[in-house]
Amino acid sequence: MEEFTVPIGPQHPALKEPISLRMTFDGEVVKHVDVRLGYNHRGMEKMAEERSYIQNLYLTERICGICSHSHTTCFAQGVEKLMEIEPPKRGLYIRTLVAEIERVHSHLLWLGVAGHEAGFDTFFMYTWRDREIVMDILESISGNRVHYAINTFGGVRRDISEAQKQTILDSLGLLKQRTEYYTNIGTTEPTFVARIKGVGKLSKELALSLCAVGPTVRASGIKSDVRKDDPYAVYNEIPFEVCTADTGDVFGRVVVRVNELFECYKMIEFMLKNLPVGDIVVKAPRRVKENEVVSRYEAPRGENLHYIKSNGTDKPERLKVRAPTLANYPATVEMLKGCFIADIPLIFAAIDPCICCAERMVELVNVKNGEASVVSFGDLKKLASEQYKKCGNKPEPVSIAKQLEKIRRKS
Amino acid sequence: MLAQLVRWSRIKSPWVLHLNTGACNACDIEVLASLMPRFDLERFGVQLKGTPRHADVIICTGPVTRQTKDRIIRVYEQVPDPKFVVAVGACAMSGCVYRGMYNVIGGIDQVIPVNAYIPGCPVRPDAFIDGVVKLLGSL
Ligand code: SF4
Questions:
Q1: Closest B-chain CA to A379
Q2: pLDDT tens-digit map of A37-76
């Protein structure tokens, strides 16, 4: 059997976060995966050292657009610890409220992407339409759709009025109804389930030893959630369950995320109904005493970690960020090993919801003669679905080159 | 006559290519959101394409990082003429918060010519649609 090396990425126009994966295939089966990073590297951590704390708050917000609140909260929490201030209860509640609403938006976005990668575009459109409800809520609270900028040191910047509370509660009803519908589709619709079951297996032991985080590890049956294990903000006051699944495949990850959505709705409702009265912010000092701190946060995709070292000035001496996706790369590599080409988009989407776009460029290099050919991700997907049609749900190793040739001739 | 036909078809169905040059994802999800049912950019015939060779308009998000610079130029060269570049978001315009970082060159216009700038951090889908329609109107 011929061996192929397939570099995916790094900079395909439709790829969200540029990353390069160099995969070696034996026929149709992935043998080795080599992850190459650094295409999106901008030099943030270094820049953070040259900016004051409050400026850095807005800088950390722009680490990632999908979970922007998670990074600011993580950073703000750490700096508050360094400053030795305690935000008022109401501020913390609003902060957590935004965090949970953000989780809803992120999970809905991810569900759509999973549907899209499995070839179920209707699902994609549905979830993204309903995601707009969440975006409206976020906009009404913070004034912006994506970068909420609601955090500040010592609390939050905007209060929630009674009228806002009511509108959020009203829209929650609709969201719940829609999510039930998605649960139905995502977990019982036979074609969809057949496509995602058993794909991208990650055993419990492997997930533990590779330090996977977030829904990826929870889908392997491990109850790991910073919100429960090391409660920050007001999570020790809010009742919620950590959702897990024990299948350890893409199906499990769908189940975990859908269940988490329901938990989010419960928490949002609880927080709105039990919103304490009082201030939303306390005054924060400009300078920070010399110290260091590690701050943890459960982002929609897993544990987010910030390490901050202060040196007595108004600028941090060092900021180190470990985002959840990075922690999941080793697990991703393991999951991809032994899978079929047809499953790569799906497995990828299951871990890294950043890849929402339709098509990516894949270059197939025939190792024997070094001949390179470029195929779009669309072709790859076509190839995938054709093969699935042909042999039911058990793809067999066939020559990629032959199939690609066929698709090319057709189009 | 033929020129008119070409112009008409160009305005009626601009195919776009989404190019992330180091953005923070927020602009990207907003660009996607404007193609989704609520905002539905497709009613103007706009379609998202995966390869540069099919596209008329490149939608750039994010500042130019050193590693992506060459690729941007390569993608730009692959797009058939006439091509248009839309810089989406404060990053693509000037570099936004990333301005001055060691790995960031600046806005998209440092590397390739830009036809339209859409401000915002991130751009709202409404602004994005407005920008695209204005670009189409200027053809
Ligand atoms: S303009 Fe703002 S939202 Fe858009 S990519 Fe840049 S930092 Fe992110």
A1: B50
A2: 666 777 788 888 888 888 888 888 888 888 888 889 999 9
Residue A353's pLDDT band (cuts 50, 70, 90): very low
Q: Best mutation site among B31, B61, B97, B128 for ligand 1, i.e. most ligand atoms within 8 A of its Cβ?
A: B61
**What is the distance between the alpha carbons of residues A42 and B59, in angstroms, rounded to a whole number?**
20
Q: Which atom of ligand 1 is nearest to the CA of B23?
A: 5
Residues A58 and A140 in one domain: yes
Tell me how many residue pairs between chain A and chain B have CB atoms under 8 A apart.
129
A99 in the same domain as A202: yes
A359 or A116, greater pLDDT: A116
From the CA atom positions of chain A, what is the Rg in Å? 22
**Of B99, B49, B98, whose CA–CA distance to B75 is shortest?**
B49
Any chain B CB within 8 A of the CB of A165?
no
A147 contacts B121? CB cut-off 8 A: yes
User: How many domains does chain A contain in total?
Assistant: 2
Q: Are residues A107 and A191 in the same domain?
A: yes
If one compares A269 and B103, the residue with the highest pLDDT of the two is A269
Residue A403 belongs to what H/E stretch?
A: helix A400-410
Confidence of residue B74 (pLDDT cuts 50, 70, 90): confident
- The contacts of residue B82 (CB under 8 Å, 6+ apart) are B10, B56
Domains belonging to chain B, first-starting first, are 12-137 (3.40.50.12280)
Which of the pair, B24 or A278, is modelled with greater confidence? A278
d(CA B30, CA B132): 14
Cα of B106 to ligand 1 centre, how many Å?
13
Contact A43, B102 (CB under 8 A): yes
The residue range of the domain holding A145 is 53-312
Which A residues, 99 through 128, put their C-beta within 8 Å of a C-beta on chain B? 109, 125, 128
Confirm whether A7 is domain-assigned.
Answer: no
Which CATH number does the domain housing residue A137 bear?
1.10.645.10
Residues of A in contact with B126 (CB under 8 A): none
A7 touches chain B (CB under 8 A): no
CA of A23 to the centre of ligand 1 (A): 31
